[in-house]
Write a structure and sequence with these properties.
single chain; alpha/beta; Rossmann fold; Bacterial polysaccharide co-polymerase-like; eight-stranded mixed sheet; 10% strand
């Protein structure tokens, strides 16, 4: 077919075409050519490197937010159900109870006397008050209360709420609450909650009485206990002071000052002996290593080079690389032929492969001596380096041995000079002894003054009292239950929302540009804006839609500019558009790119290479047959299959009726021949291929094109699938130009710029 420039031109919106696939595009057919609508239903912002995952692999806040926006319904439903379950569980497990409240008073102790200087500070009062708050619920006080009796003579432990507990002391220790009252700093509120309102107040009052009795007895014994403690401290201090004074006198006597030097010398001599033994051991090890390395250097021919080492060395040889590549290609041809043929006969292919294997073995045998020589030379060089290091260590250790021995001789001479003196366990430094003696003397004086002041204190001032006794409660306290249920519900809601968002983020859907540039290593050559979404109860404004269509045109034209630049630099004229899996907008992207190239006054042929699920013929409202499948089977010529479209300079070859024979024909050389013929007639050829992962068709086509463009749908495409698709393309030697991301935010930056774009296009 000879395309002519006189093909009818479109009178629509810049010749943009629209795909019929409702999941990606909807709008007018090629007849109207008024607009083209990409419709990925997803959030409207596209992140950058700041929104990608963190360096340790965990998802960032932006990634979790995007995941939540994709699954917010499931997250909210799960969170609400979980919160309701937790609230019901709390209401069932922790029913509201009757609270009994009593109050105790802890005096600040402002009375005059001995304690004015020691216990009247506010910090001391807070410590004393905290101690009293712990004492009221201590096991000792609780046990004392359980042993008491009620006013009618019944034992406290016979109360029903006590008998129902298997561990009354443990239950009461956790159930009693003692807290401060802000407006009354000397008052402590004591609360006990239980299921029986007629007994909870009786039990709490028994505990308050036991607490008061405990404090009274402690206060009565306080002075006696303090006096005994101070007297014992004074006795110990006096004895220690006498000992230090005796030792100091011995040190300051004749010869006393040398005893410390004697102990230090002995300790230093023992340390040097240990160092010498360690040095000798290291010398033996180093000399053994020197001997071993010398033997290896003297007999380098003993080194054996394995076939694996030889194959690793051959990977750097260009001839070996070429042979290995030919062998791998021949293996692929044999496998493909075995899979696609009913009665496979691979005798010729097997003979070719055996011939290549023999060539590779002969090359390896011819290169073996040289490679073995190089590897032995490298091994000997490494051994020499290790031998030099080992000899250096030996020399260093010998010098250390000489220095240690010289030091030991000097130490032994000094020890012999003062050996007759006593070297018992005595303090070393006379100055230290003097400091210790002085400190002990000051402590002795202070203890004597404290004991004298305490003996003069005759007051017995009890600092605690019961300010208010508990009364029988009439209503249950639901505040704690509500707080616990609310906190549990909110916590469970947030946790489940976070879990759903985290699980969604683990799917690694593409949401940010860094996911492609950094995570996948693909170059983003362009983005396509998402169709504006109307708010609930309203429609998209015509001006907004018109502005979006202008932005869509600019986005596609930007990608086209990069393709034109690539065609000038490396003759990229045959471009294959594909995606990892179905539903990622490849057909719409291929149609838009073809239309954009045609608008740039290039003769363009769009080929529908998706033989299994074609769609381009519906987009352009033309018959499906004849097409590429008929050309591959030899049932039609390329001229018969190519048809003109309503867009000037754009022609199309539909997919035709695909079958197993057409798919198998993709592996033959006639595909490359067909494309070479078409390149003589068209400036660009855009191929809309099948998805890469489900079928093998695209990998066969990709070997015959100049480059491949990935179509990636934001918040739909997944990174692992894209990585696998790219790996398969690299395995067949296909070149990837980059990726185009569909469904991103208005990439022009502002509404004003969008209006400028619309104005420029209309002009």
């Amino acid at each position: 077919m000879n395309p002519q420039d006189s093909t009818p031109k479109s009178n629509g919106h810049h010749g943009m075409v629209s795909a019929p696939n409702g999941s990606l595009a909807q709008g007018h057919t090629v007849d109207g050519l008024r607009n083209s609508v990409f419709v990925p239903v997803m959030p409207q912002n596209f992140g950058d490197a700041n929104g990608s995952s963190s360096k340790d692999g965990s998802p960032s806040v932006a990634v979790l937010w995007q995941a939540f926006r994709r699954r917010w319904v499931a997250a909210v439903v799960a969170g609400v159900l979980g919160a309701v379950a937790v609230i019901l569980l709390v209401l069932f497990v922790f029913p509201a109870q009757y609270p009994a409240i009593g109050k105790i008073r802890v005096k600040f102790q402002k009375d005059a006397g001995f304690f004015v200087q020691n216990q009247s500070a506010f910090g001391d009062f807070q410590v004393f008050k905290a101690f009293q708050m712990d004492l009221v619920k201590s096991p000792h006080v609780i046990q004392r209360a359980l042993n008491a009796q009620t006013q009618d003579g019944r034992p406290i432990r016979d109360l029903a709420i006590v008998r129902e507990s298997s561990d009354p002391i443990g239950w009461l220790k956790n159930a009693i609450r003692a807290d401060n009252i802000n407006l009354a700093p000397e008052t402590v509120r004591v609360t006990l909650s239980a299921d029986r309102n007629d007994e909870v107040a009786v039990l709490l009052n028994a505990i308050l009485d036991a607490y008061y009795d405990e404090n009274r007895e402690r206060e009565e014994q306080k002075f006696k206990g303090q006096l005994d403690d101070l007297s014992e401290k004074l006795r110990i201090t006096t004895n220690d002071l006498a000992l230090k004074r005796r030792l100091l006198a011995e040190r300051e006597g004749p010869g006393g000052k040398y005893r410390a030097d004697f102990d230090l010398l002995l300790e230093d001599l023992k340390g040097r002996e240990k160092d010498l033994a360690q040095t000798n051991l290291e010398q033996i090890r180093s000399k053994t290593e020197v001997s071993f390395l010398q033997k290896q250097i003297q007999s380098p021919g003993d080194m054996q080079v394995s076939d694996a080492d030889l194959d690793d060395a051959l990977r750097n040889d260009l001839r070996a690389q070429s042979l290995l590549k030919d062998i791998n290609r021949k293996n692929a041809e044999i496998d493909l032929y075995l899979r696609n043929s009913v009665n496979p006969d691979v005798g010729t292919l097997e003979a070719d492969r055996r011939l290549m294997m023999d060539q590779y073995k002969r090359l390896r045998d011819s290169l073996r001596p040289e490679i073995e020589r190089k590897m032995r030379s490298k091994h000997v060089a490494e051994l020499n380096t290790r031998l030099f290091d080992a000899k250096t260590r030996v020399a260093t250790l010998e010098q250390q041995e000489i220095a240690i021995k010289d030091r030991m001789v000097s130490l032994r001479e000094k020890v012999r000079a003062i050996a007759p003196l006593d070297s018992g366990n005595i303090p070393i430094d006379v100055a230290t002894l003097k400091d210790q003696t002085e400190n002990l003397s000051k402590q002795q004086i202070k203890l004597n003054d404290t004991i004298a002041g305490l003996k003069n204190e005759v007051r017995n001032n009890l600092r605690v009292s019961i300010e208010e006794r508990a009364v029988e409660p009439s209503q249950r306290d639901v505040s704690k239950q509500i707080k616990l249920a609310g906190a549990g519900g909110v916590g469970m809601f947030g946790l489940l929302v976070l879990i759903v968002s985290f699980m969604e983020s683990r799917t690694r859907r593409i949401s940010f540009s860094s996911d492609i540039n950094e995570g996948l290593g693909l170059n983003v050559i362009g983005t396509v804006p998402a169709m504006p979404k109307a708010s609930p109860g309203s429609k998209v404004r015509p001006k907004q839609m018109e502005m979006w269509e202008a932005q869509l045109t600019e986005s596609i034209d930007t990608i086209r500019t990069q393709m034109l630049h690539a065609s000038r630099n490396d003759a990229t004229r045959v471009v294959l558009v594909s995606s990892a899996i179905p539903g990622e907008g490849k057909s719409s992207l291929a149609s838009q790119l073809a239309a954009s190239l045609a608008r740039a006054w290039r003769k363009v042929l769009l080929i529908d290479g998706d033989l299994r699920n074609p769609s381009a013929h519906r987009l352009f409202e033309m018959p499906r047959e004849p097409g590429l499948s008929e050309v591959l089977r030899g049932e039609a010529t390329a001229a018969d299959a190519i048809r003109s479209t309503a867009l000037s300079r754009l022609w199309m070859m539909p997919a035709g009726h695909g079958d197993a024979h057409a798919v198998q024909a993709l592996a033959q050389d006639n595909v490359r021949t067909l494309l070479e013929q078409l390149k003589q007639q068209y400036d660009f050829i855009v191929i809309d291929s099948a998805p890469i992962l489900p079928v093998n068709d695209t990998l066969l086509l990709a070997q015959n094109v100049d480059s491949v463009v990935f179509s990636i749908m934001r918040n739909v495409s997944r990174a692992p699938q894209i990585q696998e698709a790219r790996r398969r393309l690299e395995n067949v030697g296909a070149r990837t130009m980059g990726a185009v991301v569909l469904g991103v935010q208005n990439e022009f930056g502002s509404e004003a710029y969008g209006e400028y774009t619309l104005f420029a296009q209309k002009a």
